Amino acid sequence: MPAKSKSLLEGNVKKHVLSLTWPMIFGIFAILSTSIVDTYFVGKLGTNQLAALSFTFPVVLGLSSISIGLGIGTSSVISRTVGSEDRQETRRIATDSLLLSFLLISFFSLTGFLIVRPLFSLLGAQGEVLSYIVSYMRIWFLALPLLVIPMVSGSIIRALGDSFWPSLQMVASAVINIIFTPILIYGSFGFPKLGFDGAAWGTCVAWVFTLFFAVYLVVVREDLIVFERVSISRIFLSWKKIFVVAIPSALSQVVHPVSIGVITSFIAEYGADSVAAFGVGTRIESLCLIPLFALSAGIPPVAGQNWGASKFARAKKAMTFGYQLSIIWGLFISLSVFFAASEIAALFSSNIEVVRSAASYIKVVIFTIMGYGIVMCSSAVFNATGRPLISFSYSILRSIILYIPLSFIAMKVFQQERGIFLAIGASNIIAGVVAASYSLYVFKDIKEEEEEEG
Question: Can you tell me the distance from the alpha carbon of 25 to that of 222, in angstroms, rounded to the nearest whole number?
Fold first, then answer.
């Protein structure tokens, strides 16, 4: 095992899940707060700028999701090699995964830069809003390769059983972004006033700093990078192992933002105010989902290491504990934000219609995030144990089979965005029930171990 890694094969499973989850809450909060901060400052520029930022969300999330998918694939393989105590294979996979991630994301970066205008025209952007988007996203696309190394590196370190340093990396990135974004948007301390483009440049500055931090973690602290000549066939072998999990995982990650893009195009029929409100609502929702995102990042190292060591019941216990926490958090946060929905939405826009619609989204959708959390926990376990097609099927169920069709039907029936919000909530609940039921069925023959063994 790598020198700094932590064995998750003994001790209480719930404690391991919690110890890996709580640092990620801070890390994910920090990362998502950058989106909230961007929304806040861009919202001060005007409704068109806020609508432009809302249009970018599904594409930004989609390409970020490819990096996340690659990280999931790498983490799955590495956690199992750590469980089987194969140090040499762990280092080989780590090295080859970073090379693969950089090459693949660079391709998407160049492609996105070239097709940015027709892409967002297809999503329904037009006029001044489209002009803002093109300028912003061209900067973002060029900087995208800087993102992939930190994201995949963080997944590698978590697979070793350490979530503190990846979380610290995420916090550092967010702090830098939060500092530079308003400076570059409005111009201060000698920096030029860049307006809407300043939000993109602030993100780029954060990614540069985070890249150096990530390189330190994997190269210096963990000594995971192999600096030696190796055959192409050996690299391809590593890539094959990663792709087995990474391709379905990346597709699963992409499905959700693609569905958001489709829903954005539905809502665009109601005007820029409705699109801006949807953007505000989804960002607030993301903030409420932070503990569940952290949980879905904390479960895989426990499940993967134990699966690699053939301790299957411990992997099952990690999943069921995730279900319990998802329900508890979902009930708590939905009751917490329900009565303050309008006040929360008003922090991001002074437009009365935007606030009204965003508050409606919060009241309806936040109540159902426990179902989404169960889907994420189920997917995390199956990815970690090398069965990503099950995880992919859950994403398809929630986003393609439920989310889009129900939203389309609701749009026609209700003739207002609130109907779409109800459809989104229904998708979360139905998908959560199905995912929990099928996952427990798959694990039905695995008996629970005694508490003293985890």
Answer: 23
Q: Please name the residue ranges forming H helices in 123-144.
A: 127-143
Beta carbons within 8 Å of 287's beta carbon, 6+ residues apart: 29, 32, 33, 36
| CA dist., res. 449 & res. 317, Å (int) | 9
Which residue from 228, 301, 282 is spatially nearest to 80, judged by alpha carbons?
Answer: 301
DSSP string over 168-198: HHHHHHHHHHHHHHHHHHH--TT----TTHH
The amino acid occupying position 376 is M
**Is residue 87 classed exposed, middle or buried when 0-12, 13-18 and 19+ CB atoms within 10 A define those classes?**
middle
Q: Are 385 and 245 in contact (CB under 8 A)?
A: no
Nearest to 213 by CA among 265, 149, 164: 149
Q: Which residues contact 428 (CB under 8 A, 6 or more apart)?
A: 365, 368, 369, 370, 371, 372, 375, 398
Check if the beta carbon of residue 1 is closer than 8 Å to that of residue 7.
yes
CA 351 to chain centre: 29
- Type of residue numbered 386: G
Sequence length of the chain is 454
278 burial (CB, 10 Å; 0-12 / 13-18 / 19+) is buried
d(CA 157, CA 138): 31
pTM above 0.85, yes or no: no
Distance CA 209, CA 150 (A): 10
For residues 137 and 120, the answer to whether their CB atoms sit within 8 Å is yes
Residue 410: which residues within 8 A CB-CB, separation 6 or more? 419, 420, 422, 423
Calculate the alpha carbon distances from 166 to 26, 61, 159 in Å: 10, 20, 11
Blockwise average pLDDT, block size 10, the chain, 454 residues: 62 91 86 75 82 82 80 90 83 91 91 90 84 90 88 89 87 88 86 86 89 89 85 90 88 80 84 83 86 92 90 92 96 90 85 87 91 95 91 92 91 81 93 95 72 43
- Nearest Cα neighbor of 374 from 319, 323, 438 is 323
Taking the CA atoms of residue 373, residue 376, residue 377 and residue 383 in that order, the dihedral angle to the nearest 10 degrees is: 180
Task: Give the Cα separation of 303 and 8 in Å (integer).
Answer: 9
Contact 269, 345 (CB under 8 A): no
Q: Which of 369, 373, 431, 367 is nearest to 399 (CA)?
A: 431
